[in-house]
C-alpha cells in the first residue's frame, strides 16, 4: 500500500510528500464504556491508514483515495461538507482544528490503507487520526496527541453523526507495540500493560455482517444510559455519568427507571469492573482470569446492552466451547463486525478450520480470519 501511495502521489503531483500512518485498533475489554466515562483496554494493530501529504500553497485541499479511486477537492475554508463520506472525515478534522484556532494550509494528498473496512477495526478513527497527526506535524499546529484524539472524536459527532467515545482515536494515536492501554475515559489518564500471553495469540473473526444499524442504535444506547443517569441524578447530587453510579444507587432507584435503562446501566457498571479486574489479572500474569472476563463482557453486551447479533453470539459461543481459547467476545460498537479471540498457538489452525466450517454451515459464508499483532500508534514514516 505504501508503494502504491508513493507512486500515485508522484504521478499526480510530480514529486514526493511526507508519509504518515495511523493504525486501526482492537479492544481487549471495556465496550460501550468510553462515552460513559468508564474504562477501556484497547491496543493499536499492525493494519493502518497511510497518508502522503504536501502543502500546495493554495487554500485548496485535494485528496485522492486509493480505495475509492477518486479525488475530492474543496476549499480549506469551505462551509460545505463534501458529499463523499471518506472526504467528510478529512473535512471534519480540518473544521475541528479551525474551531480550536489552528490554521492548517491547503495541501495535496493521497491515502489508502489495509484496515479492513466495516469490520469494526476503526478504519474511520485511523483516517481521522492520520489526517490530524499529519496536518499537525506539517503545519506545526501545536496539538498534543490527546487533543488530536478529541478532534477525531468530535469529527464523528459533528460531521458523521455518531456520538462515539474517545477510545478508537485514542488507541490509534497512543498505541504501543505489544501493549494494551487502560484508559480512564473520565480523567483521560492511561496505564500501559504488556499483553504477551505466552503461547497464545489474538485472532479476529469477522462475521462479515456489516453493522449498518450501528450508528442509529449506538446513539440510542447512549441515550438509554443518559436516561438512567438522569433518574439517579435527581436524587443524588453530583452524578454526571455512570462512572459516579454504584450498583447500590442503581438498585435503589430502579423502580423509577424503565427496565431497559436499568439493564443498560447495569451492564456499564459491570463492564467497568471487569476491565479493572482484567487488568489486575494481567498484572499477575493470570491470563485465564483475563479470558473469563472477556466471556463475561460478551454476555453483558449480548443480553444487557443488546448490541450483539446472532452471528456474533454464534462465534463467541462456539469459541467458548473450544479447548485452547482463553477468551472471546464481540468487539467494538456491535451489530456486526468481529469477535476477538485469544487462542493457543498450537490450536490456531484447528480453531480457524472449525470456526469457518461451523459458521459456514450456519450462515452460508465463512468468517474472514484476521491475524494481527499489537502495533504502534500514529507516526511519520521516513
Ligand atoms: C465504537 C465507538 C467507540 C466505542 C465502541 C464501543 O467503536 O467509536 O467510541 O464506544 O464503539 O466500545
Structure, described:
- With 382 residues, the protein is an alpha+beta fold.
- Helices cover 43% and strands 22% of the residues.
- The chain has helices spanning 2-13, 85-99, 123-138, 145-160, 167-174, 214-235, 247-252, 259-283, 287-304, 310-320, 348-363, and strands at residues 18-27, 39-40, 42-55, 60-65, 70-75, 107-113, 179-184, 190-194, 200-206, 325-330, 338-344, 368-371, 374-375, 379-381.
- The strands form three sheets. Strands 1, 3, 4, 5, 6, 13 and 14 form a seven-stranded mixed sheet that branches. A four-stranded antiparallel sheet has the order 10-11-9-12. It has a three-stranded antiparallel sheet with strand order 2-7-8, sandwiched between helices.
- It binds alpha-D-galactopyranose (GLA).
- Residues 31-32, 34-35, 122, 164-165, 167-168, 332-333 line the site of alpha-D-galactopyranose.
Count of helical segments?
11
Average pLDDT for all residues: 96
Low-confidence stretches: none
Largest sheet: 7 strands, mixed
Tell me the Rg in angstroms. Answer: 21 Å
Question: What order do the helices and strands follow?
Answer: HEEEEEHEHHHEEEHHHHHEEHEEE
Q: SSE layout and pairings?
A:
Elements: H1 2-13, E1 18-27, E2 39-40, E3 42-55, E4 60-65, E5 70-75, H2 85-99, E6 107-113, H3 123-138, H4 145-160, H5 167-174, E7 179-184, E8 190-194, E9 200-206, H6 214-235, H7 247-252, H8 259-283, H9 287-304, H10 310-320, E10 325-330, E11 338-344, H11 348-363, E12 368-371, E13 374-375, E14 379-381
Helix pairs in contact: 2-3, 2-4, 3-4, 3-5, 4-5, 6-8, 8-9, 10-11
Bound molecules: alpha-D-galactopyranose (GLA).
Amino acid at each position: 500500500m505504501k508503494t502504491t501511495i508513493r507512486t500515485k502521489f508522484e504521478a499526480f503531483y510530480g514529486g514526493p510528500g511526507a508519509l504518515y500512518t495511523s493504525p486501526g485498533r482492537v479492544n481487549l475489554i471495556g465496550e460501550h464504556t468510553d462515552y460513559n466515562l468508564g474504562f477501556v483496554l484497547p491496543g493499536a494493530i499492525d493494519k493502518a491508514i497511510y497518508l502522503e501529504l504536501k502543502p500546495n500553497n493554495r487554500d485548496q485541499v485535494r485528496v485522492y483515495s486509493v480505495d475509492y479511486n477518486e479525488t475530492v477537492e474543496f476549499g480549506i475554508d469551505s462551509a460545505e461538507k463534501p458529499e463523499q463520506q471518506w472526504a467528510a472525515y478529512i473535512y471534519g478534522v480540518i473544521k475541528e482544528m479551525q474551531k480550536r484556532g489552528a490554521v492548517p494550509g491547503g495541501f495535496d494528498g493521497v491515502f489508502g490503507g489495509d484496515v479492513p473496512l466495516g469490520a469494526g477495526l476503526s478504519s474511520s478513527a485511523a483516517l481521522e487520526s492520520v489526517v490530524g497527526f499529519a496536518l499537525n506535524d506539517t503545519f506545526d499546529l501545536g496539538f498534543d496527541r490527546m487533543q488530536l484524539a478529541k478532534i477525531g472524536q468530535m469529527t464523528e459527532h459533528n460531521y458523521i453523526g455518531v456520538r462515539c467515545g474517545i477510545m478508537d482515536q485514542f488507541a490509534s494515536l497512543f498505541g504501543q507495540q505489544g501493549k494494551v492501554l487502560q484508559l480512564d475515559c473520565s480523567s483521560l489518564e492511561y496505564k500501559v500493560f504488556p499483553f504477551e500471553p505466552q503461547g497464545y495469540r489474538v485472532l479476529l473473526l469477522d462475521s462479515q455482517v456489516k453493522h449498518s444499524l450501528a450508528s442509529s442504535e449506538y446513539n440510542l444506547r447512549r441515550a438509554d444510559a443518559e436516561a438512567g443517569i438522569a433518574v439517579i441524578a435527581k436524587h443524588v447530587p453530583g452524578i454526571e455519568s455512570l462512572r459516579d453510579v454504584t450498583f447500590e444507587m442503581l438498585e435503589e432507584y430502579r423502580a423509577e427507571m424503565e427496565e431497559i435503562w436499568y439493564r443498560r446501566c447495569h451492564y456499564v457498571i459491570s463492564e467497568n469492573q471487569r476491565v479493572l479486574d482484567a487488568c489486575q489479572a494481567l498484572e499477575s500474569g493470570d491470563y485465564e482470569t483475563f479470558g473469563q472476563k472477556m466471556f463475561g463482557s460478551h454476555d453483558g453486551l449480548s443480553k444487557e446492552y443488546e448490541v450483539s447479533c446472532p452471528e456474533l453470539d454464534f462465534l463467541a459461543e462456539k469459541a467458548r466451547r473450544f479447548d485452547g481459547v482463553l477468551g472471546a467476545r464481540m468487539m467494538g460498537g456491535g451489530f456486526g463486525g468481529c469477535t476477538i479471540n485469544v487462542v493457543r498457538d498450537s490450536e490456531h489452525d484447528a480453531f480457524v478450520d472449525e470456526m469457518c466450517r461451523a459458521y459456514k454451515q450456519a450462515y452460508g459464508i465463512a468468517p474472514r480470519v484476521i491475524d494481527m499483532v499489537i502495533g504502534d500508534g500514529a507516526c511519520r514514516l521516513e
